[in-house]
Amino acid sequence: MGHRLLPAVLATCCLVASAATAQVADLRSHGEFRVCADPAAVPMSSEDGSGFENKLASFVGDQLGLPVTYTWFPQGSGFIRKTLRAGLCDVVMGYAQGDEMVLNTNHYYTSAYGIVTRKDSKLASVDMLEDPALKGQPIGVVAGTPPASNLARAGLAKDMRGWDLFVDRRVENPVGDMLSKVKSGELAAAVLWGPMAGPLIKNDSDLQFTPLLKETTGPKMFYRITMGVRPGEDAWKRELNSLIRRNQDQIDAILREAGVPILDDYGKGLKP
């Protein structure tokens, strides 16, 4: 009897799965390009529309022929669950490849962590965290990020000055604080994510950003960046993949104009 019931059970499971997939697909708006974003993740996203992810979203919306609307929520615990997964919006810009909380599109750029120093500093030529010149120097880093592990591996744990990873950036500005302290000399260097640091120092006459492309141990320093959609929304993912493929040059131009360091796909050097 168990064998006779199996086809019926399988058929029921398939129907439930199909219904669930249809339900997920139905969450997507076809009248708006609905973006989930942090209202104060400058220079990436901002409620005033000045972030480079806002500009990318506007470009994507134009290509789709859809107006862009936002669901604003501080990035951190619960961000995906309370925005994308709740059906309030349909895409997260700037999402690292490989996170299981979302279904990733193809990546539309690759970037890296790097070291910010004063241009006139004795550390200006440092391009890897194992450089002995960093010993004994106060170095800013966001706690919990990959370079914090590499700094510890390089024996620099006592030299690290940590800032929190998940904060409400409407009231706290860890990256801005670190850059100010490097500029003043209170920190000798700060190790930061390129798409955050690069745009903020693009026009700064005192500071420079050097990508960390030569690390030999610890977590990798470069990551491929995608758009994130809900798991199961494969047709939506394919539509965005096609858009990225057709418009890669324009996407690169928006990122470069913002000051984002763009790498080749393998994190070996700056993209031509």
From TrEMBL:
It holds the Pfam family SBP_bac_3. It comes from the Bacteria. Residues 1-22 form the signal peptide. Keywords: Signal. It comes from Paracoccus broussonetiae. Residues 32-261 form the Solute-binding protein family 3/N-terminal domain. This is Substrate-binding domain-containing protein. InterPro entries: Quinoprotein_dehydrogenase (IPR022448), Solute-binding_3/MltF_N (IPR001638).
